[in-house]
């Protein structure tokens, strides 16, 4: 092979190598973006566990403004306490988890925050599905399980997953945190029985219209009146008969 031909072949090989490297870097960049949750040495049934969440930015023109987390079974929104996060961001509980949101972050800046969970459930792993919103309205949905929604090369949006060690010996599940509507009343219990008072029976009969034998007085009075009427009628009939005779 002539030297000019060899030189041209070498240059072409170098150009092809550079192009291949650029393509590799370009295709690998999206795979690097991810959302994660960490808690060093976390065990099932551990109490007051601090979780650290991080969500990488995938936008080249907008900043992250909100992260919405869907809590796994066994953790209620009332069990989560916000510790710290981006400046100006606030925590708010939702029906299925919580949100952490605030002023938009700088373009390309990742969102990181920490919360404390009252107690972890008795499970091998916990999945925290996350919706990541940007200032331009775009939403990254970190909700896939085991990267099942990706292209097979790590280009999906897997949900943050926290693997737990087995529960410590003697660890027990504590009672759930009561919601505001279920909080016990602080009023002192009444010392008096709650049963309604039964009115005392009256010493005087309801109606004084009976005799000693329990027969209503109207009965003998009626009989007496009937006897008088009958007797008077009989006397009048006899008087008239004798007069006519």
Automatic annotation (TrEMBL):
Residues 1-28 form the signal peptide. Residues 145-214 are annotated as: Disordered. The keyword Zinc does not apply. Residues 100-164 form the YncI copper-binding domain. Residues 180-192 have a biased composition (Low complexity). Residues 145-164 have a biased composition (Basic and acidic residues). This is DUF1775 domain-containing protein. It comes from Streptomyces neyagawaensis.
């Amino acid at each position: 092979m002539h030297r000019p031909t060899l030189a041209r072949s070498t240059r072409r090989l170098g150009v092809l190598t550079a192009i291949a490297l650029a393509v590799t870097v370009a295709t690998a960049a999206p795979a690097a973006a991810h959302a994660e949750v960490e808690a060093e040495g976390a065990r099932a049934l551990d109490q007051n566990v601090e979780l650290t969440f991080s969500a990488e930015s995938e936008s080249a023109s907008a900043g992250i403004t909100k992260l919405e987390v869907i809590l796994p079974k066994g953790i209620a929104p009332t069990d989560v306490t916000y510790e710290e996060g981006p400046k100006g961001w606030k925590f708010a509980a939702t029906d299925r988890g919580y949100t952490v949101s605030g002023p938009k972050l700088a373009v390309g800046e990742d969102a990181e925050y920490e919360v404390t969970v009252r107690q972890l459930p008795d499970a091998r792993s916990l999945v925290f599905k996350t919706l990541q919103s940007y200032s331009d309205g775009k939403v990254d949905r970190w909700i896939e399980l085991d990267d099942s929604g990706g292209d097979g090369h790590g280009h999906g949006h897997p949900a943050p997953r926290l693997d737990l060690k087995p529960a410590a010996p003697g660890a027990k599940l504590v009672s759930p945190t009561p919601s505001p509507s279920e909080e016990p009343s602080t009023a002192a219990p009444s010392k008096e029985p709650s049963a309604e008072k039964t009115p005392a029976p009256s010493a005087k009969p309801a109606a004084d219209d009976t005799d000693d034998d329990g027969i209503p007085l109207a009965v003998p009075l009626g009989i007496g009146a009937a006897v008088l009427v009958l007797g008077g009628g009989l006397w009048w009939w006899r008087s008239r008969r004798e007069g006519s005779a």
